[in-house]
């Protein structure tokens, strides 16, 4: 799994930056290689991409979304990736947009691209184009202000407690320098 973390500051209020990010169908205007995104329902998007001449289609699920804070997703089918975009108010007129993404490169070309930092460079470029897009417009093209709560975390199973070993008599202290157990009146 390859991880990418990128951040950019945009000169619009947090509400404007977040609202624009929820307009997935506008992604082709600033994301290189994204041909089309269709919002199927509140949680599901369908993506069409062309990267290095290879056309792909896949669906992604929004796993968590909170207005002016975050949008998290993972793919349902197709290339394995997921991540989260968070929005941080810097002041009344500026926002820090942070993206964390993990993906599994498919094939030798993608693995080489990930290793050489090409994918990270593409993500940085996408964030710069998002900045230009939203700052030039000065307002969002739409908004979705609904909440999607993250699914509950599944607790990790705890190993069973160790069973009592009858070979160890907890009532009798053992001192390695002396043969056998030591009676309470004896001192080592």
Describe this structure in words.
This protein is 20% helix and 34% strand. The protein has 188 residues and is an alpha+beta fold. It has a 7-stranded antiparallel sheet, covered by helices on one side. A hairpin with a 2-residue loop joins strand 3 and strand 4. The chain is globular. The model has no long low-confidence stretch (mean pLDDT 84).
Question: Summarize this, please?
Answer:
With 188 residues, the chain is α+β, with helices and mostly antiparallel strands. The protein is 20% helix and 34% strand.
Instruction: Provide the succession of SSEs.
Output: EHEEEEEEHH
User: Roughly what is the average pLDDT, rounded to an integer?
Assistant: 84
The CA-CA distance between the termini, in Å, is: 56 Å
Q: What is the chains' assembly state?
A: single chain
Low-confidence stretches: none
Strand content: 25-35%
- Note the main sheet: 7 strands, antiparallel
Descriptive tags:
188 residues; alpha+beta; seven-stranded antiparallel sheet; 3 helices; 20% helix; globular
Secondary-structure map:
Blueprint: E1 2-10, H1 14-21, E2 34-39, E3 44-51, E4 54-66, E5 70-75, E6 81-91, E7 94-103, H2 107-115, H3 118-137
């Amino acid at each position: 799994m390859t991880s990418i973390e990128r951040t950019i500051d945009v000169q619009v209020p947090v509400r404007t930056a977040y609202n624009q990010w929820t307009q997935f169908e506008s992604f082709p205007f600033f994301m290189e290689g994204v041909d089309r995104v269709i919002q199927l329902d509140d949680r599901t998007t369908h993506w069409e991409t062309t990267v290095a001449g290879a056309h792909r289609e896949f669906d992604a699920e929004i796993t968590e979304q909170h207005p002016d804070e975050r949008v998290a997703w993972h793919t349902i089918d197709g290339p394995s990736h997921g991540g989260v975009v968070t929005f941080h108010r810097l002041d009344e007129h500026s926002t820090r947009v942070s993206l964390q993404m993990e993906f599994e490169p498919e094939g030798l070309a993608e693995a080489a691209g990930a290793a050489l930092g090409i994918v990270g460079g593409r993500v940085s470029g996408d964030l710069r184009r998002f900045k230009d897009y939203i700052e030039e417009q000065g307002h969002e093209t739409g908004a979705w202000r609904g909440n999607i709560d993250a699914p509950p975390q599944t607790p990790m199973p705890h190993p069973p407690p160790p069973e009592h070993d009858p070979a160890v008599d907890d009532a009798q202290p053992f001192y390695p320098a002396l043969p056998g157990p030591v009676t309470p009146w004896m001192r080592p």
